[in-house]
């Protein structure tokens, strides 16, 4: 197979990320896609970069943002509340097969290296990108046209997670991220109170 054919095959497969829906909703009421999620993470990385106390390789950060969910072009996104132990195992296996397919198409082990780096969380870049990954959930909560859908999953699973101490503490490693999370959390709490009469203190732990 020619290099050009492999590259076009890679591009057409990865395009599916633009069509792959996530559970979260957007300001227009539509589901977020995996591609828009990845783009928003990259956008946040660029905006936050001048404020970071931790030195990071920005080119590597952007690569991780764009490619961290690439396997979902084949393996599909699985909402967090559905990820039982068996589902996680299957998800991992499916993603590894997808990565191998991309390796074969590109003949470039950098794709696997980036994915493994993101999963391991051993570098400043991968740890930052993981924080951006979970922060984007908060952005979706803040911007969603209607927040009522969030509480329909597993007895407020996502609100309990978003307002949990564990969620908040994960941002302690980088002051600007903690400030941004706190600002988003406060605005989401205000929305819930105004629009649905929900006091978020019931979700604190």
Written description of the protein model:
There is one protein chain. The chain is mainly alpha-helical and 205 residues long. The protein has one domain: Hypothetical protein af1432 (Orthogonal Bundle), CATH 1.10.3210. 62% of the residues lie in helices and 4% in strands. It is built from 10 helices and 2 strands. A two-stranded antiparallel sheet has the order 1-2. A hairpin with a 5-residue loop joins strand 1 and strand 2. Helix 1 packs antiparallel against helix 5, helix 5 packs antiparallel against helix 6 (110-120) and helix 7 (124-143) packs parallel to helix 10 (175-196). The longest helix has 22 residues, at 85-106. The chain is globular and about 60 Å long. The mean pLDDT is 94.
